[in-house]
Structures
1.
Amino acid sequence: MKESPVFTPNIRDLTRGSIFRQLLTLALPLMAISFIQMTYNLVDILWIGRLGSRSVAAVGSIGMLMWMMNSVALISKVGAEISIGQSIGARRLDHASLYASHTTTLALILGLTFGILFLLFPQPYVSFYRLEHAIALEAAGYLRVIAPGIPVMFLILNFSGIYIGSGRSDIPFYINATGLLINILLDPLLIFGFGPVPAMGVQGAALATLLSQVVVLLLFVYQLKRKNGLLGRFCFLVRPRRRYTLNILKLGLPVAAMNVYFAFINMNLARTASLYGGHLGITSQTTGGQIEGITWNTSNGFATALGSFVAQNYAAGKLRRAGRAFRYTLMMMGLLGSVVSLAFVLRGEWIFSLFVPEREAYVAGGDYLLILGFSQLFMMLEITTQGLFNGLGKTTPPAIISIVFNTLRIPLAIFLGARIGVTGVWWAISVTSLLKGSILLTWYLILRRRLSKKGRINE
């Protein structure tokens, strides 16, 4: 097959030019997108916190499910980022377009499947947490409203992955920022009501999120289908071909499995926290986890950018350039992680009180942030190194380490929780984060030495 022309104004070549400038150009919009996703949840909590900590617990329990759904959606998103990035690095725009069509088809199938499942059967999931009856009813009502948005969420993440793999992280940023602004405007209106709009409580928060996400999806479709669209205005739906589908699954499944399992472990940790700390245990973990997203989302933005950068340079045979990008990213993440760690350790209660003003809630949440503050640097190290492995197409090592040590959290949380209460659950999370970051970096250094001996690290 004849090689197709590759680089158009819509695609960015990451194999040439300043490494640091290209990383920032790609990572800053991605980081902003991550913060936008985090802000969706924080805005909900900010307003729902005024309804009380029980309502926060109800929404937080469903937030765990949405986290799991985001993780499943990584099958198509990560598959798009890596396969499209590597196709562009290999100068095969025709392959990139076919991969985009396949990941979009896969995202729609998965999203519809899970959306219908949770719309029709919300109760089995809600009962998992053994919440008080009133809190469980609120949670089920929230899930019924948000479930139709699951296919929308899958497609949004997939389209973001297509743009990221093409080196154009700025487009998803602008589109997602628009959705956030709409959500910010709709949240208080639908939660508390105004004039002819009735107060809907937590269901209003779900509806605000759903409506804003529909707008985001429509904007993505418009951008991709406009004249001179990305990758030649590829088809959204195709009959899957074995070769492309298997490669997407090979790239995306390990990352998705790792994150799905991580979400499942956190659901079990939330359940354990509720046994030792009641609804305040769930409130601390879910709200504290959203606040912790300051470091998680920043790291994830830079790690995703690093993955796209490494994918193009790895396919172009420029591993030394990819290694320098990894070092730059580590330095930036180390600086930010130090600042956030100090803030959590020294001002955890005050930070938590901004979202849930009940004294009991922010004292308990302050303990969560204090303990997790000690592991923020190692969490950022793990996520950044995972981005490097993803770009190399070696998504299995991070999955192995994540699954092993996230599994360890459950028995460790039960052991410590039985002795020191709910804070034992938080220490189980912090200690295993420290181990994951350290071991994954060591694995990369071993891999790099092997590649160097084989003579595969060059310019």
2.
Amino acid sequence: MKRVVGWMLMVLLACGLAACGSQASSAGSEGDGAGDVDGKLEDVEISLWTYPVGNFGESATVANLLGKFNEAYPNIHVSIKYLQYSDGDSLMEEAIEKGQAPDLVLEGPERLVANWGEEGLMVDLSELWEEEEASQIYESVREACQHRNGEFYVFPICMSSHCMAINYEMFQEAGALQYIDEESHTWTTEGFIQAVRALVEHGQEQVGIVYCKGQGGDQGTRALVNNLYGGKFANSDYTGYDVDNEKNIKALQLLQGMEGIRFDPEAEGIDEISRFIKGELAMAFCWNISMEISQSVAYPERGFDIFPMAFPTNDGEPKLQGGIWGLGIFNNGDMKKIEAAKAFIRFMTMEEEPYKRAVLASSYWPVREVGDIYVNDALIKEYGIFNQYMGDYYQVTPGWTKARTAWWKMLQEVGEGVSPSKAVKKFSEAVK
């Protein structure tokens, strides 16, 4: 029996109370002047571009959050643009080149700190980090949000650990459940090898794919390769990349030669998810709780149970790639807009009830202790087990954009038969 996505229904119910719109802006409502920010701000319009973080890609969800903000700040009018990971970066770069970057953006440190922050495009948010609520944010999250120069270019909302997933019924029928630990949601590299073999012998020709058309969902392929034999993606001080090592080479050699695992240069993470949810694949490497929720809504008649798993590892200690998402401000030279954007960040991250609503909209976990906001929700608690396996947040390593491109191109070469040792050397040359 498929699990009930309990909290999702609560979020959808809340969203249903809000007026739906697409790329529309939220008009300011009548108010008592609470939005004057101590009388310092007049009417101002700011823009927010949001990547699809949980339900932040859904207009109804965002409209609900903005409605609450406008009750408190009726003089700040926020227009919204919803981005997809497939083309969001190109749209953002185009806007930056034209001098039309949004005032606010919702994404993670890999873009806000290591990319646009590195280029000097972001407003330093250090003053926000000096406030009371910021002192409660987990230290690991704080470190990821701070640039090497000491400035902060993102104020976080939520966090999560990416994982993978298996088709439980398919594993059961193939006798492959014996190779996973259902209690801890972990398995060994040898167990992974045996499970894939059992599935192939049972008649499942495509057990999993190493998708490599582009960077979409690349956190899954990195975690797969790095975990199999304990390899790393970046060095310990996050000043450069460490893909060219014998552990990663060994993992790529394993995947290159495995029957049932195919390198697919025509697929990205979203394509893998689609095929997995349709029952064409036995496992998906691009996964997290948000994926299960969204796919359960999109495919309510799915005929199998999704069982989330940590990536297989040879030492019993999986290291999952974490996700941190928050708000940053582009420095467009207008102090009036910058102050309004800071007011928006304070409201969404420091006010207790708005912050809880923002976390719920993300479908992830808070970056500070706010109590159990997912009461009696079996699904969120099941996925919460993966937070203990959080690995290094290496996405802030310089040259991150180039590294992501070099990664999927490297996977394509391995899939074409190039020796992994040669492919990783080419990766290293590309990121110098």
3.
Amino acid sequence: MNIDIVKELDPLFNPKSVAHIGATNNRNKWGFSTITSLINTFQGPIYPVNIHEEYIQGLKVYRKVTDITEPVDLAVFTIPAERVAQAMEDCVAKAVKSAVIISAGFAETGPEGKKLQDEVLRIAQKGNIRFIGPNCMGYWSASSNLGAFMMPLLVRDGPLAFVSQGGNVGAAVVVAGYERGVGFHRYVSCGCAADIAIEDYIEYFGKDPEVKVILTYIEGLSDGIRFMEVVKQVTPKKPVIVLKPGKTEAAAKAIKSHSGAMAGSDEIYDAAFKRMGATRVENPEEMLDVAIGFLTQPLP
């Protein structure tokens, strides 16, 4: 796949406007905490989309994305899985450039969910919409001061970039970084990674001059060969720190039900990380310690 990754992902990390499909005034739904997270961070126009509300936190609400008269760069989804495909069709019609699907109920649930996920991917590709997720906890981009999080997170700008297949692990590292005074220029909870793969994010971070150290939490890879090629190209210029669970059978089983990823043989992963020059760590605390070490010491 010969694509210009910077050109492909820039609309996602530098949007000028955001539509939130599934924003709500109901405090018991993710659509409430997500719109709150957007309002607390993003300075550009935010367009809530919901068929039942007129105003959400002072913002005018639209019934569909296609009802918004201004251009929309990013769509954030927090609606039930079965409604995502139709809403993605609307995004294609509206010429939305990028999306983040926080909604769960896709490949991580089994064959039916995978079918639904493939359909959403097919529609998005028709409109050249690159998207994060589904089944993720959102993302942060310091260049546009945008936190599209399932729940508001404490995060500051800084020299780290992090892509995590596990939302809880990702959030814990980001918040621990905030408490220790270390910031993230980019943070992505990638979930099922139906469209943008982990290695795509690493390639993009590798080309971002603001990013000095790249962190990744991996549960399983769909294209191990490409992952190796990308990391091999990035590591001579920037350290790549990898946290990969799944050493035990129980952990491997838990991973499959969580992100729909196959854990794979731990020995193979271990040898591969060494070969590509990545630094493997055992837990989130060590990940942050090693990242701070790389930032404060001359690179080996």
4.
Amino acid sequence: MLKTFSIGGIHPSDNKLSAQSALMQLPPEGTIALFLGQHAGAPAEPVVNKGDKVKVGQLVAKASGFISANIHASVSGTVAGIEPVADISGFKKPAIVIQVEGDEWMPEIDSSKDIVRDITIDSQTIIKKIAAAGLVGLGGAAFPTHVKLSPPPGKKAEALIINATECEPYLTADHRVMLEYAEEVLIGTLLLKKALNAPKVYIGIEDNKPDAIKLLKELVVKYNYDIIIVPLKKRYPQGGEKQLIDAIVGRQVPSMGLPVDVGVVVQNVNTAFTVYEAVQKNKPLFEHRVTITGKEAKQQVNMIVRVGTATSKILEAAGGMPESTAKIVCGGPMMGKAISNIDAPTTKVSSSILLISEKETKRKPESNCIRCAKCVEACPIGLEPYLLIKQAQRNMYDELEANRLQDCIECGCCLYSCPAHIPLLDYIRLARAEVLKIMRSRQK
């Protein structure tokens, strides 16, 4: 029987339209812009100046604290400036702008296709190489990977879980990485296991990817790797850390707690691949894999893109936007963010460009809540969205905290399941931000 999490969840259509599209490389050209704050924590500090020549993989901004990440040039060329650049929402943020001139890589990067299987370094050296390479979690949160691999005193990782669920509709880049770089993913997983000194390691994959499950299982047996491949029932949001931990090891992360509180560390499958590249190939994180898709998209594409590439250039390489496009989303349809500036540069965690037609964007008219409790049934955290929205509308922040609004993962299950088409998530998201602000100020 397939495993899954125990509370809530929904079953949206897969729409994995690009699943059969092999990863293609987008050559760098023109200019790219590298945001200094494209990760959780403190922004990186530039170590280059306008007019400097840089190579691919060269450090251009250094982490400014423990929770921060190095940034490396994704192209070779000349630093055109360090200046504000508009992100996908149109807000200007500090960035290093580089004019592309050729494609010269740092000499220490091994760009060959040869697979390096032997793991010859100790756990602390692995973590140091990961930090130096600027790796962050590629599941969306962009939390620096080296921090996750360094649990606080008194905490120990008894299990490592690799999140290969890719449960959001439309997204397929993780799926393609598993098919095209399966051995590298497994070696990266073993490197993470060694870095954490974790006794057990699992890779959780939803059963709508049978080819990836079959391939990884075969390779685990072939090389006698100490990794357990866990097929999971297709269910959204299976990729949430708390839901994945519940599904695979049956442990419940406490309110406002972290996975390591129950002895687990979760890493994305794409992160495992970049760990392989960083440790075995000396390759910093300057590329990311992006799905370009949509029901009316001109092409269904999975693409390898240099960090900092303009979204418009990616769209152009994928055949351009159909005339019916009304909204462009960065990420999946459930938790992604609408793009208002198509010239915005990508970041390390840009995973998808989803084109949505005008017909698909129209919301159905809202009607009165009938207390059907479908939103309660769907919530994977066990909250009561119908109650939270009433308290949110009345700014009842103490009551919202008492009812655990802060634990909401903003997955959208409540909104998806509501027959009255009430914009539950819109109100809850705004109120949650305020509640978290109040809780942080109280701690200070």
